[in-house]
Design a protein that fits this description.
CATH topology: Kinesin
Bound molecules: adenosine-5'-diphosphate, magnesium ion
Radius of gyration: 39 Å
CATH superfamily: Kinesin motor domain
Number of helices: 14
Oligomer: single chain
Length: about 475
């Protein structure tokens, strides 16, 4: 088991316009825990940010300034999670921040340059490279891609997407089993055997997401997207299978209703996003407080789906994306505050191992057979149904290997089944009879017999020679 708090990182997005000086500073040296200081300019301190404080300091496991490229982000944030995922632990990386702060750029990447590939494509590339290198296990990889919009789940990889709109497809819903495990109904799993196949699925999902989006319904800022890699691994011949899930999550924009609320539909939608993030915050507050027994996961679909990632069986990492411009300071501060709470949450990741049911069935069938035999023996009720062809063949094979076995200790084990015991005797009798007939044949063939008698003949020959010698001696004596 690996006990670990949720790891928090901050990433500062390059500003759209020229950089405004003096708004933040990063201190890397402070006892090895880097901290980010946000400095509120005097003209904002009394009004916009409703607080007299002039600076706020937040600690993170790592802070990545504007110049940090996608490769650095992958190496420092995603690679360690991918490594433990490959070892069999669940992993989650989620990006949290206001719209335009770089969540999608960080999780998926930018479309313009190859070097702008984000965490998902880089992680897929890394995972498949590692799987290729490791021939000691049999791996199976599946991909799913879920979008949660207005508390409704949509399967971004549903093959019927092309024919119909998001709303017409069956909704993804949550089912909970008696062990409180979450299952997602109507979310398709697609096997991917190569990096390319997995990337195509990512591309398909992102395209489906874009098709569904209209200016009135800016799904990308209002929805949560969860790209999941499901990995199972097994050593050849072993019945134990390991399962792990890696969620790569692009959350909805964390800005509050006050800023986006313009009435009507938009307001309703904005409230919904915030409701979902509001429930996420509730879960995080409950988890970060000691002695809270009830965690309100069930309040929203997102917190239900990410239940294991938040205070459960998972290694979780949060990336706070920040757009540190003057007008965004209040949102940036609340993003950092949220992160500080998240950092208090403790997770316990375990290896998810289970026994392959097919191998268990085989084992149980054998046991049932043995028990039946034993029962028949104890109750004295012999089993009368005839042995099947397969059983007879199996017995004959057993006899053959028993006869061939040079080990004097070897035994012919057929269980306590009189039918089998009888059959063994019959078969042995048959073999013996066959051997006899064969044996008679060998007696009548002379070559072999002569071979056997050769040493005897030689002895006789020597004897005769001795006698001959004796006689010669006698003759020569008489002659003398
Ligand atoms: P979000 O998903 O949080 O709404 P995006 O990822 O879409 O934000 O980012 C908004 C814009 O900023 C995009 O055009 C994106 O390409 C750009 N951007 C975000 N982060 C970076 C970065 N670190 N480097 C360069 N461009 C970035
Ligand atoms: Mg986005």
């Amino acid at each position: 088991m690996v006990k670990q708090t949720i790891q928090i990182f901050a990433r500062v997005k390059p500003p759209v316009r020229k950089h405004q000086q003096g708004i933040y500073s990063i201190d890397e040296d402070e006892k090895l825990i880097p901290s980010l200081e946000i400095i509120v300019p005097r003209d904002l301190a009394d009004g916009f940010v409703n607080n007299k404080r002039e600076s706020y300091k937040f600690k993170f496991q790592g802070i990545f300034d504007q110049d940090a490229n996608q490769e650095i982000i992958f190496e420092n944030i995603a690679k360690p999670v991918a490594e433990s995922f490959l070892a069999g632990y669940n992993g989650t990386i989620f990006a949290y921040g206001q719209t335009g702060s770089g969540k999608t750029f960080t999780i998926t990447g930018g479309a313009e340059r190859y070097s702008d590939r984000g965490i998902i494509p880089r992680t897929l590339s890394y995972i498949f490279e590692q799987l290729r290198k490791d021939s000691s296990k049999i791996y199976t990889t599946h991909i799913s891609y879920l979008e949660i919009y207005n508390e409704c789940g949509h399967d971004l990889l549903d093959p019927r997407h092309e024919a119909s709109s998001l709303e017409d497809l069956p909704k993804v819903t949550i089912l909970e089993d008696p062990d409180q495990n979450i299952h997602l109904k109507n979310l398709s799993l697609h096997q991917a055997t190569t990096e390319e196949e997995a990337l195509n699925l990512l591309f398909l999902g992102d395209t489906n997401r874009m098709i569904a989006e209209t200016p009135m319904n800016q799904a990308s800022t209002r929805s949560h997207c969860i790209f999941t890699v499901h990995l199972s691994s097994k050593e050849p011949g072993s019945a134990t299978v390991r399962h792990a899930k890696l969620h790569l999550v692009d959350l909805a924009g964390s800005e509050r209703v006050a800023k986006t609320g313009v009435g009507g539909l938009l307001l309703t939608e904005a409230k919904y996003i915030n409701l979902s993030l509001h429930y996420l915050e509730q879960v995080i507050i409950a988890l970060s407080e000691k002695h809270r027994s009830h965690i309100p996961y069930r309040n929203s679909m997102m917190t239900s789906v990410l239940r294991d990632s938040l205070g459960g069986n998972c290694m979780t990492t949060m990336i706070a994306t920040l757009s540190l411009e003057k007008r965004n300071l209040d949102e940036s501060i609340s993003t950092c505050r949220f992160a500080q709470r998240v950092a208090l949450i403790k997770n316990e990741a375990v290896l998810n191992e289970e026994i392959d049911p097919r191998l268990v069935i085989k084992h149980l069938q054998k046991e049932i057979q043995e028990l039946k035999d034993e029962l028949a023996m104890v109750t004295g009720e012999p089993r009368t149904e005839a042995l099947t062809e397969a059983e007879l063949l199996q017995l004959e094979k057993l006899i053959t290997s028993f006869l061939e076995d040079q080990d004097p200790e070897s035994r012919l084990e057929v269980g306590a089944d009189m039918r089998k015991i009888h059959h063994c005797f019959h078969h042995l009798k048959k073999l013996l009879n066959d051997k006899k007939i064969l044996g008679n044949n060998t007696v009548s063939s002379e070559g072999k017999d002569q071979d056997c008698q050769e040493p005897l003949k030689e002895e006789e020959y020597r004897k005769l020679q001795d006698i001959l010698k004796q006689r010669d001696n006698e003759i020569s004596r008489h002659a003398a």
